[in-house]
Amino acid sequence: MKKRWIFVISVLVAMLLTTNVKGFEQPQTLILIVVPDFSFEEAEWLLEYGDRNLWRTAGFAALNVRPDGSYSYLNNTVSLSSGIRGVGVDHWNAFEQGEIIDGRKVEDLLLQWTGSYPQNSLLHPYFHKLVEKNNETTFRAPIGILGETLKQGGIERYVLGTSDLTHDQRIRYGSLFAVDKKGAVQGKLTEVVKINTKSPAGLKMDINHLLEEIVRFEKDSEKSFIVVEWGDLHRLFTERNMMTDDQFVKNYEKALRSLETFIQMVVNNDSQNVMMLSPMMHAEAYKKKKQLSPFFFWNTSHDKPMELYSQTTKQRYIISNVDIVPTILSTYDIRPPAELPGSPLDLIERPNEIYEDIMNNVNWMFKIYSTRSVVLSSYITLLVIMLLGVGFLLLRKKANPRWIHIGKVLLLAAVSSPIWYLLLSKVLLYVHSGYYFWLLTLLSIIFGWILMRYTKYPLVILGAIQFVAISLDLWMGSPLMQRSYLGYDPIIGARYYGIGNEYAGVYMISGLLMLIPFWKASKKMFFIVTTSLFGFLIIMLGTSFLGTNAGATLSAAIAWGFIAVKHSFIMKKWKLWLPVLLFGIPVLSLMLLFLLQMTGNPTHIGYAFERILSGDVSYMTDVIKRKLQMNWKIFKFSNWTQLFVTSYILMGIILWRQKNWIKNEREKDILQTMLVASVALLLLNDSGVVAAATSMFLIVAASYFWLLEEKEVDA
User: Fold this and answer.
1) Which residues face 306 on adjacent strands?
2) In this structure, are 299 and 335 located in the same domain?
């Protein structure tokens, strides 16, 4: 009897002392339901008409599924399953032993191509080609890393179901989540998909058989990871165009109800945690620019509404595809491999339902993304026309004072426009995007007129307002920048937090405009003020919980280095100042950036430092290649190229034709520092064309304003 009590107490103590990563309880089984063609339209339908208790108490978030290449079910699944952006390979599929490909057994193909094949596994004849293709990319997605890590952790893996359309049109990508480094995993694909002549493509997921297989595999495994590829929605949307509207609606509701029924059954088992994700939204949602996928998570330890928070995105309700693999591993208390950039999701219990808040935010993101191109192209075109118009005015030997005044107001309006796109980002929730654009244009013009009418130094005041507003937004976690047309877009996924490259250029030049009142200061005082400004800029741009923009931080440091060299005794000795400027300042800047990243939570910059310091030279070269590729792509296709080219050409014309228009040494220092900062932003950012365009535009606009003031005096 005494021994029994000792055993019971020992078990209770062990249970109390057990800790889990990120608040997840260790389950016996994790079931991952992969539902291709499931979009936020279907999520909204289920949240509205489905089982309220099931859907509204699940962890729910919008998932960025952007791959390294074009959006597709295969590319997106490769990325989600490897924890790094990846791409698929032609003809990829999973096969059961005995299946035929082009008249040959799949086993025979593997023997001919690789010399062997796994005996107790699904077969993936193109696995080696998928590995090779991703090793050739700059992301180098580690195919099979999830399945391999689970295998090493003693987790049994199993795959069920397909998205097949016909016997010859096989679509089976779910196994990518479970294959190991050799391309092996157990599973049953076709057995759990039954023939049903009334269903789209004549096939339907067999819920009873699926549940039987899950129960059987659980009994045979101490811990298990089961992937279910639920292909009914994919089959439905593939045949959408051939159906009558009534027939589609009827099958649409049936498909969603069937999916809900299956999820209810597996969620009700307390030994199972359940995740559901969609690797790819259907074509209709994609065309509507609704290019985020729903992600649901039912955790056995939580019965209240849950918020999923990603350390990768640092935004509420939006998670990254690189977080899925670490999150799956964390449910088994397995540490993610070091080469993976993502983090396990945090589960935060909320007292009330948050699904309405999530849907409002998601629809806001969709609205920005769907109208961004039109709004920005209109905005950029207006800026270019304004610059060319004022440039023509400056070419005239004599100009009407009224036109000069109008030109100055328009320049101030253009320089102030970024602040309106920041401060009024939430107005877009309530007005049409076209009205929003013209409202901001009108406000910019009115503000420009007020500055001209009531202030003596409008550019200085404008620079100070923009500098303070952006600084405050960064301190608050960038809530305004996250949803600004000039901010970053979670659907694109290039940046989720900190300061984007559009505002990085605006921020830096706005700060430098505040130096104008010090043009009469002594050389020493000017250097002290400039150093203080750049010190603040570097902290704001580089700290992990603020700007987190490596390119902008290094650009600010280099711009300060230019000022420091120019004001030092070595200025006249180029053999000294040239290596200091080209090598000394950049090295010191990198060291400072590294120190700034040691504060707060991990970031993408901190991850890069870890990889580089561990000796991963290929990672560094891959990053450089991606930055160059991104800049070239932006230069070829982005609307920002218009402003970039126009601004740089006009600045060149100003410097060529107006060689002596600035006579004060401090004013020359300010202008030259602005130019150095803009060029550094171009060279050091992955979207350098954008940062260079916004920064050089502000420089040209400020220069035009000063030239118009001179012309006004001469008139």
Assistant:
1) 59, 349
2) yes
Q: Is residue 8 part of a domain?
A: no
Which of 106-110, 440-444, 491-495, 613-617 has the least mean pLDDT? 613-617
Q: What is the sign of the dihedral through the CA atoms of 308, 311, 315 and 320?
A: negative
Task: Check residue 347 and report its DSSP letter.
Answer: E
**CA 319/CA 326 separation, integer angstroms:** 12
Judge whether 186 and 227 are in contact, CB under 8 Å: no
The three-state (H, E, C) secondary structure of 118-163, written as one string = CCCCCECCCHHHHHHHHHCCCCCCCCCHHHHHHHHCCCEEEEECCC
Cβ–Cβ under 8 Å, residues 67 and 78? yes
Contact call for residues 56 and 296 (beta carbons, < 8 A): no
367 in the same domain as 337:
no
Both 167 and 257 in one domain: the answer is yes
Q: Which of 645, 706, 694, 606 is nearest to 311 (CA)?
A: 606
State whether 382 and 315 are in the same domain.
Answer: no
Mean pLDDT of 693-714: 85
Indicate the DSSP class of residue 291: -
Q: How many CB atoms lie within 10 A of CB 156?
A: 19
Query: Given CA atoms 338, 89, 620, 648 in this order, what sign does their dihedral have?
Result: negative
Question: pLDDT (tens digit, 9 = 90+) per residue, 3-53?
Answer: 434 333 343 333 333 333 344 445 578 999 999 999 999 999 999 999 988
E strand or H helix at 49: helix 40-49
Q: Over the stretch 513-526, which tens digit does the pLDDT of each residue have? A: 998 888 777 777 88
460 and 592 share a domain?
Answer: yes
Task: Show the tokens assigned to 505.
Answer: 């250029």
Domain count, the chain: 2
Nearest to 296 by CA among 550, 61, 505, 16: 61
Backbone torsions φ then ψ of 298, nearest 5 degrees: -105, 115
- Contact call for residues 272 and 30 (beta carbons, < 8 A): yes
Mean pLDDT for the stretch of residues 182-194: 94
pLDDT at 616 over 80: no
Kindly give the residue spans of alpha helices, DSSP state H, lying in 299-432.
Answer: 324-330, 355-395, 401-423
Q: Are residues 341 and 398 in the same domain?
A: no
Which pLDDT score, from 0 to 100, does residue 14 have? 37
Q: Do 584 and 483 reside in the same domain of the chain?
A: yes
Domain of residue 140 covers 29-353
> How far apart, in Å, are the Cα atoms of 576 and each of 30, 243, 275, 560, 676?
62, 76, 60, 17, 19
Helix (H, G, I), strand (E, B) or coil at 280: coil
The β-bridge partners of 349 are: 306
**Which one of 353, 385, 411 terminates a domain?**
353
On whether residue 96 sits in a domain, the answer given is yes
Residue-wise pLDDT for 648-685, tens only, equals 998 888 887 766 666 666 677 788 888 989 998 888 88
For residue 552, which amino acid is it?
A
Question: Which is nearest to 63 in space by CA: 342, 428, 335, 479?
Answer: 342
| Residue at 645 is within a domain | yes
Does pTM top 0.90 for this prediction?
no
Mean pLDDT, residues 549-559 taken together = 86
